[in-house]
């Protein structure tokens, strides 16, 4: 389905399962979605392929493409356009399907190999993603946040006898699995190149959504690419931050919701956000929520609390997230008083 001229332009930034959930939610609101994806994964199939071929890791890009293909709203649009829903579901399963066995292919998702193969043939990961999008009739676009494979480096405390000392840990998997507390992360190379298409999408967006996801490896990296951060600062889009439902073992153990905001602000104190969206079960009413509102104010943002989780699970419910976002855009002007002159969500 081709987006109508008055369709709002939505940009979602993140990686992995968090971005998959966000894209599924935003697809309820608009077919005109651009996913901007982190490219620092060095584990599993993605890690094997990037180390062998020196290309950007494909895994999170593949997941974003699959999300846009099989989101419930995307399947509804396919049916309305006379396209086969069963085919779309099959291609989505194909992209995600991992080879079994114990040989060289074991553990590789087919979508990773397709994306890497096309990138080698065409010489450009963005063109490869666009060709896969056309092949599978995906509405929306998937882009890497950088055109180069990146490495995450972190300062981690709690690994030395002196708790005040930090150790430098390199690599996304190592950062996620090393005991201790992550204090700060960086990207290598420093000041990595942004994807020009991603920067342009942010500048032209009506709504930009950051998070949820692995905070130090899927969320914060998006503000560590200088040109992309500048685009996030200068865009006239409404900007929303969706915070994780719970601390993530390995990356953010023991983190409160408030702490998530403080560490993001420490990495990008120039960034302004309109809305911080939090699940009500993750922060009790009272003083803790008051502290959280003050943390949101560091970004110039208003705090919004609602029922966002699937019952009994630490997983966002895409339909509830979509409803919360649509409700905010329809009823509450951003605190900064700015609103995109182009379009609003309907």
TrEMBL record:
InterPro entries: CofD, CofD-like_dom_sf, Gluconeogen_factor. It comes from Gordonia araii NBRC 100433. One of its GO terms (molecular function) is LPPG:FO 2-phospho-L-lactate transferase activity. GO terms for cellular component: cytoplasm. Keywords: Cytoplasm. It is found in: Cytoplasm. Its main location: cytoplasm. Belongs to the gluconeogenesis factor family. GO terms for biological process: regulation of cell shape. Pfam families: CofD (PF01933). Gene3D superfamilies: CofD-like domains (3.40.50.10680). Required for morphogenesis under gluconeogenic growth conditions. This is Putative gluconeogenesis factor.
């Amino acid at each position: 389905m081709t987006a109508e001229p008055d369709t709002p332009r939505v940009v979602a930034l993140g990686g992995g399962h968090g971005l998959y959930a966000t894209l599924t939610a935003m697809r309820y609101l608009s077919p005109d979605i651009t996913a901007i994806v982190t490219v620092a994964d060095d584990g599993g199939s993605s890690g094997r392929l990037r180390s062998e071929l020196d290309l950007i890791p494909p895994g999170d890009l593949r997941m974003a493409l699959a999300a846009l293909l099989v989101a419930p709203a995307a399947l509804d649009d396919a049916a309305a356009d006379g396209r086969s829903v069963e085919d779309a579901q099959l291609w989505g399963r194909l992209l995600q399907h991992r080879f079994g066995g114990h040989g060289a292919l074991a553990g590789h998702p087919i979508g990773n190999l397709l994306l890497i193969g096309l990138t080698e043939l065409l010489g450009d990961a963005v063109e490869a993603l666009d060709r896969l999008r056309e092949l599978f009739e995906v509405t929306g676009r998937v882009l890497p946040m950088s055109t180069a494979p990146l490495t995450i480096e972190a300062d981690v405390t709690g690994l030395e006898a002196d708790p005040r000392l930090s150790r430098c840990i390199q690599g996304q998997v190592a950062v996620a699995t090393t005991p201790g507390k992550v204090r700060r992360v960086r990207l290598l190379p420093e000041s990595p190149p942004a994807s020009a298409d991603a920067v342009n999408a942010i500048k032209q967006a009506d709504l930009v959504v950051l998070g949820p996801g692995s905070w130090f490896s899927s969320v914060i990296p998006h503000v560590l690419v200088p040109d992309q951060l500048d685009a996030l600062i200068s865009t006239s889009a409404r900007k929303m931050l969706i915070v994780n439902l719970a601390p993530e073992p390995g990356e953010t153990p023991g983190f409160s919701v408030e702490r998530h905001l403080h560490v993001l602000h420490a990495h990008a104190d120039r960034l302004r956000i309109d809305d911080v969206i939090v699940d009500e079960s993750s922060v009790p009413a009272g003083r803790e929520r008051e502290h959280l509102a003050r943390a949101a104010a560091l970004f110039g943002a208003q705090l919004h609390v609602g029922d966002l989780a699937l019952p009994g699970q630490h997983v966002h419910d895409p339909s509830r997230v979509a409803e919360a976002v649509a409700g905010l855009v329809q009823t509450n002007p951003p605190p900064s008083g700015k609103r995109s002159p182009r379009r609003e969500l309907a």
